[in-house]
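Quick one:
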Amino acid sequence: MPNRLSQSLSPYLIQHANNPVDWYPWSEEALVKARKENKPIFLSIGYSACHWCHVMEHESFENDEVAAVLNRGFVSIKVDREERPDLDDLYMDAVQLVTRRGGWPMSVWLTPDLKPFFGGTYFPREPRQGMPGFIQLLENIEKLWSEKSHDLKLQADELVKEMKRISSPEETNAPLDSKIIDQAIGQLSQEFDKEWGGFGSAPKFPQQMAIDLIFKHNEATHQVMAFKTLDAMWEGGLFDHLAGGFARYSTDRQWLVPHFEKMLYDNAQLALIYFDGYVRSGKSQYRITAEETLRYLLRDMTDPRGGIYSTEDADSEGVEGKFYVFTEKEIQQCLDQDAKDFMGVFGVTKEGNFEGHNILHRFSGMQAAPLGNVKEKACKDKLLRYRNQRVRPHLDDKILASWNGLALSAFAKGYRVTNQKIYLDQAQSIAEFLMSELWDGTNLYRVYRKGQRHTPGFCEDYAFVANGLIDLYEADHNEQRLHQSRDLMEILITKFYDRNLGGFYSSDPRNTDTLFPIKNVYDQAIPSPNSQALRALIRLARYFSLPDYLKIVDQSFKACGKWLEQRPRAMLSMLSVLDLYLKPSLEIVMVGDPQDPLITKALGSLNQKYLPQLSLIVGKTGSLPHYQGRQGLSDKALIYICEGQTCSAPLNELDEFNKFIKKY
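Output:
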């Protein structure tokens, strides 16, 4: 008989709807039950594409004996971390304090007043490889709660005290300067894998924020780290060489064997960073990789209404990676006379490189005779059609505001770099979806699925969408985008800004269903909410001349100062924003018809430059301060360039403009 999770819209919760466990979603009903019956809460947090979440479900949550213990002694709550990042962040802090590591599935035991007293990640049903068995663990906790609940509550109080300490900012009066960025780059240099690219050893994550900061640092010796990493990620099995798009991470140092799940947030950020790599280096393969990633999102992840879905699972038919791998025989049968050349380029062998199968990659094929673009595309298309006849991995089709904000930025960048209208059309579709389906004029909602929106937006939702709208303005020059972005940031300030100490809470501190609000300043798979809120404020301050926004930025940097000094490596996106804040602005105002030849050609040149400081204004007229004194001065298009507080005379010749930007 289905449990309460069957009424949920979350694909992750629905996956557990037929468990014998008496699951509750995170709700007032569950919290009241725990308090009324004085039972500890077992909180299980995961997401639909999580392989080990599936393993723990099959081993434990589908097991009647486990369910009996949970139903007898606990109030069991399931949470989709993608819907409730505030709960995930809060209790991940607790798990990391208890175990010194984190991950999903996350398993946390709480007192009825929501204070954690014990936690971990995956537990096998029976003891294995030094891990306690889940049944044994549950029975021990049940016994302890019955006999020594007072001790567990004291333990919980101490843990909460430490959680509050690590999540409270320590203001600094010392000025923040570029030295702290140099320090972080130095740490990245020490971690850099010179042989295979990336930072650290296995498992390896893409770390887009590290590459972004390196690009902004602008020193050739450091750029090598970024380009080596971009090359290796594309060459390896992390990249889907048939359909495009990247998997979540590599299980090995070489980027060969991925954890096969595909996440929207990874692919949006990687498309952005590969486009940056292209304009940084001129290497066409980076542009091609970014385009193939966007086309994967367009083809396989786009909702008919315009939003982008969240994830594709690692598993199909209960086997991790089954959808993506091939035997040598399959490729021979599918490609016939072209098989030998294809297998040489993509490292296919009889033995395989993954449990008797082959993950396509280019490492061993770098020295092979090239297929040629036409033949390679034909082979890949043929194999993709063959692969698409298989059972596809599960698609999590919920649409999240913050992740779609990242996708909006990626498609807008794709249009600017390639001039391919398909990317602008998709960026505009995402923006229209977000502003019609998830924004009601006063509140931004986080989640949309099956025609319903729910869950009030978090700081990251407002900040990522606000930045995405600015990026779209710089692509389509529709000033409404900037006003929409500013509207979002006004609400963000009202809901999340700490006016006493500075910085932004991740969730509305007035919420009553969480233990306490936290300020998330550390990067995870996506940039921290605080960094992206500050980035949007700086950019809007430059567009609208808003000194009050810069005061908020200044106070927030001071509030985060100690954290930045102590753990710069964990706050790379914040350092990128600090770089934006410290360097002089670059404002380019093109007054005239956007279709004027001078403007179209100037934009073509400009869009092939790496200019992270740029504020770009294009149009005949508008309400932005940059138009004052510049509208109607000439029948011809004019271009104004301001660096910091210094502005050039108006330019009306393309050669003059190109000569000016050549120095960048």
